[in-house]
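Lab meeting notes turned into a lecture example. A postdoc, R.K., suggested we walk through two folding results consecutively so the class can see how the record format repeats. The first protein's sequence and structure tokens come next.
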Amino acid sequence: MTTSSSTTRLLTLDAMRGLAALLVVVYHLEEELHLAPRGYLAVDFFFLLSGVVIARTYTPRLERGLGIRGFMTERLIRLYPFVLLGVLIGAARRVGQLLIHHPQQMPWPDLLVALPFNLAMLPTPLPGYGLFPTDGPIWSLFFELVVNALYAGFLIRLRSPQLLGLVLLMGAGMVALFAGREQIAGGPDWAALHIGLLRSGFAFSLGVLMSRQLPAGAPRVSALWWLPCVAIVAVLMVRPPAGYGGLYDLSMALAGFPLLVWFAARRNPAPAFRGAASVLGDISYPIYALHYPPMFIAAYAARKFGLPPMLWIPVFIGGMAVISHGLARSYDPALRAWLSSRLQTARSSTSNSRVALGGITPPAPRAP
């Protein structure tokens, strides 16, 4: 039984994104928990979801003249507050390792080189540490910006048959690259940069294509909204038989995730469940961007105090969820508003300088 929803927010996808982000944390604690062996596939799910949401939100605005520069500025402002916080926490962790002479410490010269690049949301040029040694998961946010630029400058101009051809070509590349392997992996380091580009490019482009086929209005309320939520959890917690891991991963990236997103994007939860779905959506990005450095700090402290994993890990995950929700409601909007105002001030100053220097900005050409 279905009725019309009063909101255009895709709340089922919000809930799925939050659950997937929590399972990324569980995956990074795999040495202790062994509960989400396929948690890394959440990245492919996130890229697909991003393609759907970005195209749904920004295609009309880009067609009305937002421009690539304006679009990328908005995307950077959206992503940067938690990147900044995650990199600073990660840098503090690296400094702590140096102070206690941790065996995995990053030498001061390398840290001083890597930090400014990571603060600028750019990969460190140093080999051997991964693209973002201060906060590892940010590698996928770097590729998010790359495919965002690709979307605004290229994908949006493609007709659907052309975009379908590109998706099929990249899908074939995924099969050729990962067939016979035990898992879809690659992207966080320089040696696998091309893999990260292929994973993000395929999933994001497929999401853009899917967005063109989805209804533009509000999703209907459905009693079946919870099915894709349960499914995304199950997908990331499955442990395929030996020798079938790569086949499982490919089937999820190429078909499983698109089917789940297609089903979920058409259904919203009933009003009684919208609050929970909204909270899961709100915490998904901050918990993904922030959990990695504190996880190592918490694990080190737990070992020092002799706390068992079954005690400190639930407290850590629950605490990260609560902190993420608070930051999403306070820190994030405040810093985004400040960044927006600073950029607006900078643009106004540039315009005033041009006028003072006698410069003339020509009007935009009319469409033929």
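The second example is placed directly after the first for contrast:
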Amino acid sequence: MKGVSFVTDETQNRRYAQIDLKGMAKYDDEKLEDLMDLLIAEARKGEKSIPWENVKAELINEGKLHVSNSRKAISKKRA
């Protein structure tokens, strides 16, 4: 993407992304959010993944996610 460059270390591993904000002004917020999502995904590529069911259970236990009974019924029907 024009306006984005990467800085590498001595072993040529990408270490930093430089973003020319003046060059990015032509893109809307949604495209910039997509760019950030891509950069984050690239940075986390080697990380261990966590199954959605585990994350969901943890969020429910912490009170950060509320699941209504109708959704549970729909999920059970699909299974």
